[in-house]
Amino acid sequence: MRTTAEVTIDAPIDCVFERTNNDVAIWSDTVEDETLVSGDGGLGSRYQIRTVERGTEMIFDSEVTQHDPPNVSEVVMKGDSFDLRVRYEFASLGTKRTQVKQITDIRGHGSFRIILMLFGWLGKTAGRKAAEKELGKLKEHCEVKCE
Question: Most buried of the four, 26, 60, 71, 110, by CB within 10 Å?
Fold first, then answer.
C-alpha cells in the first residue's frame, strides 16, 4: 500500500533536508526514539527506531537506502508486523521555500498482509491523514529551526 503527502515549508532546502533527516524524534508524533547503530547518518547508515502509535510500541530496524542532499532521502524500516519504505523528495521553490513530498510504502507480514489487502482503502486514507499531520509538524519545526 502506498500513501503520499506534500507540504510547503517556508525555509531553505538545505536546512529542511537536514532537519527532516536529523531531527525525526523531535518533530514526529510517532517516532519516540531513533538510535544510530552504524554509519554517519548518510547512505547505508543503520538505526533502531522506536515508535508508539495509539499506545502500541513497535521497534524497527532501519537503513538509509538513498541519501542525495538536498534532493532525496529514503529509509527502509523493518518491523515484526510490517515493513515501511519512507522516501522524502525535496524541491526548492526559491531561496526560502521548500516543497517536501513524502512517499510511504507499507508491506505487511503474515495476517497483517491479509488485513492490508482487505481493508487497504481504509488504511490508505488513514495513512495519508497521518502523513499530512506529520508533515505539518515538520513544517512547524523547520520554520522555527531554519530561521
Answer: 60
Are 51 and 58 in contact, with CB atoms under 8 Å apart? Answer: yes
Q: What is the pLDDT of residues 18-39, one digit of tens each?
A: 999 999 999 998 898 899 999 9
Average pLDDT over residues 83-97: 95
pTM: 0.89
Residue 102 near residue 84, CB atoms below 8 Å? no
Nearest to residue 3, comparing CAs of 122, 124, 135, 129?
Answer: 124
C-alpha cell read off for 76: 527502509
Q: How far is the C-alpha of 30 from the C-alpha of 17, rounded, in Å?
A: 19
Q: Give the Cα separation of 5 and 103 in Å (integer).
A: 7
Q: Positive or negative CA dihedral for 22, 26, 32, 35?
A: positive
